[in-house]
Write a structure and sequence with these properties.
The chain has a single domain, classed as Alpha-Beta Barrel (fumarase), CATH 3.20.130.10. The chain has five helices and seven strands.
């Protein structure tokens, strides 16, 4: 098990291999389909991004409503391929890591390798467990999108594994 203190630098990414079990600690962001679409539209309009992507990690998730006495509701990964059409552009703007579930397109795999990024997988069905790793949460952008708003989460020992490393190896292809 590897422990990583975020942000996720290229130096850290170069040390990770497909299949590694990892505990992430630090700030990550949540963003799903609607938020990704909005970010790309804003970049294309010359408005820029709502936060600096350099060496950041985006978790493809939208939390369930927060129960009383909790920091956040259950927060499990969504299917990553839904973000594939947006991912290469975000990687070119400095995004270093993504957390989700499932395979990625050939174009995303190439972009991960080109930008020395990491695709982490989180276990689907473990949303309540993932929520236990969240210590702080704040909305960063697109509050009107409700559960799909971009959130900044401070996580402590969030369990994930490296699904695709920055050398192009993938747990899904048997590389």
């Amino acid at each position: 098990m590897k422990r990583i203190e975020l942000p996720l630098t290229e130096e850290i990414a170069l040390q990770l291999r497909a299949g590694d079990e990892v505990l992430l600690s630090g700030w990550i962001y949540t963003a799903r389909d609607a938020a990704h679409q909005r970010m790309i539209e804003e970049v294309n309009q010359g408005k820029g991004l709502p936060f600096n992507l350099q060496n950041q990690v985006i978790y493809y998730a939208g939390p369930a409503p927060t129960p009383p006495g909790k920091v956040i509701g259950s927060i499990g990964p969504t299917t990553s391929s839904r973000m594939d059409r947006f991912t290469p552009m975000l990687l070119s703007h400095g995004l270093r890591g993504m957390i989700g579930k499932g395979t990625r397109s050939k174009e995303v795999m190439q972009a991960i390798e080109a930008h020395k990024a990491i695709y982490f997988a989180a276990l689907g069905g473990a949303a309540a467990l993932q929520a236990q790793a969240v210590e702080k949460v704040e909305i960063v952008a697109y509050e009107e999108l409700a559960s799909e708003a971009i959130r900044r989460l401070f996580v402590k020992d969030m369990a994930v594994y490296v699904a695709v490393d920055c050398f192009g190896a993938s747990i899904y292809s048997g590389d």
